[in-house]
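Researcher: I'm preparing a figure for a lab meeting and need a structural model of a single chain. I don't have an experimental structure, so a prediction will have to do for now. The sequence is pasted below. Please return the structure as tokens so I can convert it later.
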Amino acid sequence: SSKESRNFAFPFYVPDGEMLVDVPRGMVRPEADQMPSACKNWLTAGRWVDVSNKKLGVTWVTLDAPLIQVGELSARLLNSQTNPDVWRKEIKPSQRLYSWAMNNHWGTNYRAYQEGPTVFRFILRPHRKPDPAEATRFATGFSQPLVVCSGGPKAPATPLVQVTPDDVVVTALKPSDDGKALIVRLFNASAFAQTAKLKWGSRSPTAVFLSDTSGLPLNAAPGKIQIPASGLVTVRAELD
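Model: Understood. Here is the structure written out token by token.
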């Protein structure tokens, strides 16, 4: 079959704007934050891409198509490419991105064909000064929308836990594996170190510990928790 590719172009008018790409637990500036051997013909965005100068910008959110091309349609390498000379060597500063929605460029062991309508959703929001943490909160609201359900007459009137500052995002709130505590995972979505503080609602824990991916208690958590830029901290709150 013939080779095909589908792209959506987003040529943002942001003079001298710098592009920032959301990746798991971090942010990447194309070219500037890539190692020399990294792929530059296409990149993967987690939830959002932001194009901003010091005064204004726009946040682009993708819900269905994570692959992007920066500055030009550079994802044109057909079939398997073993010659390094044909790969893109540099991503020049640009405010233009392309969503690489679908393609059949590579040989596969299944039919490279798709029928029926396909939906791709994008959300754009202009803003003033760039704020990666706000972009994270904004995009997460679309990819993880609130689930509405009846709480009953005994539902708490206050949140289980509140976290400040806004740059620190709660990425997980779940029971521990042993059922004796709550696990709260805090992500600093900003480019600067932050000091997080937890305010508990009607159910206060008897003790709060720093933890890791095991969910087991380590050291006692201080009242103010230091989180480095793009850092992740896990907290274990012991219950009665």
